[in-house]
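User: For a benchmark we're assembling, each entry needs the component sequences followed by a predicted structure for the full assembly. Here are entry 17's components. Please fill in the structure.
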Amino acid sequence: MDHFLNEDQQMIVDLAKQITDEMIIPNRAKYDETEGYPLDIVETMAKSDFFALFVPEEYGGLGGGCFDTVLALEQFGRGCVGIATAYAASALGAYPIVISGSKELKEQFLPDIATGKKRAAFALTEANAGSDASGIQTTAVEDGDYWVLNGTKQWITNGGQAHLYTVIAMTDPHKGPRGATMFVVESTDPGFSCGPKEKKLGIRTSATTELIFKDCRIPKSRMIGRRGAGFITVMKTLDKSRPGIASLGVGLAQGALDEAATYAKQRVQFGKPIISFQAVQHMLADMAIQTEASRALVYVSAKHIDAHPKQMSKASAMCKVMATDTAMKVAVDAVQVMGGYGYMREYPVEKMMRDAKILQIYEGTNQIQRNVIGQELNKEYN
Amino acid sequence: MNIVVCIKQVPDAKDVRLDPETNTLSREGVKSVINPYDRHALEEGVRLKEEYGGTVTVISMGPPQAQAILTEAISCGADEAFLVSDRAFAGADTLATTYTLAQAVAKAGKPDLVLCGKQATDGDTAQVGPGLAVRLDMPFVTCVKKVRTIAKDVLTLERMMDDGYDVLEVDLPALLTVVKEINTPRFPSLRGMRRARDYQITSLTAEDIGADSSRLGLGGSPTQVVSVFPPEKKGDRTMIEGSVAEQVDKLAEILFDSAFGA
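Assistant: Structure for entry 17:
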């Protein structure tokens, strides 16, 4: 379907598609198998300016629009959600600086993020703080011209691969959620280290590690926004980033549909290609309907967010739920359409099915998204 | 450093067909691309510019459609682009082509380094690079697989040979033709694509380059193509691809089937 993209947007799609077809798809099975980090592909994306997409122009970027990033992520996600996540994690890590950082902080870090010279990561989750972000136990204490961080973050995407981390820590624990503050921690800071790479069901190429802060000293200038405003920054960051995860879902669903439909045309049973059987046709039709509907909601939501409305949480959460639940369902159905072949690692859909699951979990589980939507509805119908 | 890269538009090798009636290349519906070797020449030019400074100018001789490859070259890092296009150039062999290109290169500026692919995948002559160098009165090295250094107008490079490589020095200005081993061409960049969209390619006609019309096109070409025909088919061939283990399995299967029936 034509979404009437402008010239700049069409260029993003065309180039992301080229990189996906020529570099991501031929290498995705290798990276899934070896679980190595796709540095060559991430560097290609950087050289082609994709890391500039989510950085404002005054800091060396190409604008920083949510929709632009969504268009790129959809293509990358069609190829491999794991590789796409390695890219998306930098956007997520950069957003707190873009949204709440001081001019100095932006000037210090954003230009290098835009060129891809430095990769970023976002550090919120802890062992006891996932969906309930108020359970954060990492602390930051003032010491002269420094902040000293202590604690452990868990399951951090780009852990060990990022050069800078945007980290939330409690500065005033007695104030509860209003006592949390965000900081930029560089991988070279004293007292900072990463754990080993976690072994996951899917997106195996994406690096996921613990971050360990042991008397980690950082200059005071690394505080993002006001003291105590950490949660507000986190919420605004996630509002802006979730359409990106949603677009990974659209891309994955499209990729799975492409594989299943291509296979169904070639596979002959009972003397006919299986696409001629209504049972298969109806499955493919449902996959196509859900994929198109998700894409439409993601695009509209991303454009809505780019218009800087006062309230964007609901749109952001709705598109995330819709597109990632769709990705899961379409991937499962793609495996079903392809039968035994679909279950084999020789074909890409079993990987898509494994990869799809994370989309319903990370950057806020789909249950939490529904909470957000429900709370907004509760306010709207006051 | 003023670097000139000569590029040619060719039919995509994955999609080459002969017209069975005329036995000429069928260009209808066939995708056109930058000659693959020229992609490597362009990439080398852009890399040398990034390392040593200067500008990269791309020149292509061809029909108006060849604009597309010049636009692509700009999006991949070239600074300026010239399309050498005139009906008078049609039917040129390599002698007429090198004459035309030499006139165009002179018009486009005074190059320190001219880069070409080692040959084009359609004509496969590998004559244009060396021919152009002779006309420009420059030393040339063919089949370059690596540019090691450029110091004080002396270029140190590696030339691919059948049994290894030669290390050579050549004075600038010079012309090099490159092989695929020299680099991995980059993808375009978003900034490059935006620049390419707004960039005005300069068109040069026979008159613009001050060419002697008797030396252009078919009339200026001693080579006459009498006929083109596909080689006679000798038996069926099957290409077996994959890892060695997969190839062995497949080969065993084919031999078994041919001996005992499928």
